[in-house]
Amino acid sequence: MNIKDLFGIYNLRVRLHTGLLFLTPLLIQLYLFIPEVRTLNNTLFIVIITFILTGVIIMFLRNRVKNTIKKCYPHLLPAQNFLLPSNDAIDPITKKRYYYFLEHNVTGFEVKTEGVDMYDSTESAIKWLISRTRDPHKFPLVFEENMNFGLSYNLLALRPYAIGFLATNFIVLTINTIATSIRLEYVTLPFNNILALTFIFLFLLIWIFLVNQKSVISNGENYARALLSTLDSSQL
Q: Which positions ≥6 away from 236 have C-beta within 8 Å?
């Protein structure tokens, strides 16, 4: 991966956002509880460290991502599945048009009775289609939906670790807040502690309710429809 790819839109959107959603509560606490962190030099240093950590997180998730996708789609990914004769996600007329295009443009593709042979045909056809639709300028919708799909399954793969980390953080900080208030005989709880707990709680809600298998399946299907719709495009 070169520098251009590292700072490309896909990496920034899919990989960096995954890491940032995980690390942001920790970064907020650093700024709330360590005044020295708020200087410009230290902020730049933290930005660099955060960027490195997001890369480490994605490396750590690589195998888990494969298992996550497999759980969401035990047999075929949506685009391949949509091309099967028995699948009705695409209307018959449109599917017939797709079949005609693929039979005349993808070597070895032919519509068969459902089974391993048809699975292989759809796999081959989608690989060919993906290779022809990589240009984000020619196929912006495919690129957008691919990023949404990638972000959703990266987040789902990270979900149990994020919930565990945030829940532990919330409990520890709550105990610390109460202990500090008792020790210093505060009438009210420390403001920064309450603010940090609020952010942790909000992020915990995001990971629990917004990051889920349903989101991955929905985004995968949207990507599949965008990808297959390019079969009607003159850009191929």
A: 105, 132, 133, 230
**Residue 113 Rama label (left phi>0; alpha psi -120 to 50; beta):** beta
Degrees, nearest 5: CA angle 188-193-197: 115
Q: For position 63, what pLDDT does the model report?
A: 86
Residue 23 half-sphere exposure, CB side, CA atoms within 13 Å? Answer: 20
Burial of 106 (0-12, 13-18, 19+ CB in 10 A): middle
- Determine the Cα–Cα distance for residues 69 and 152; give it in Å rounded to an integer: 10
**Residue extents of the structural domains in the chain:** 3-72+138-227, 78-132
Question: Exposed, middle or buried: residue 115 (CB in 10 Å: 0-12, 13-18, 19+)?
Answer: exposed
How does DSSP classify residue 74? S
Q: What is the pLDDT of residues 2-11, one digit of tens each?
A: 444 555 788 8
Backbone torsion region of residue 108, taken as left when φ is above 0, otherwise alpha when ψ lies between -120 and 50, otherwise beta: left
* Residues 44-76 pLDDT 10s: 999 889 988 998 898 888 889 999 999 999 989
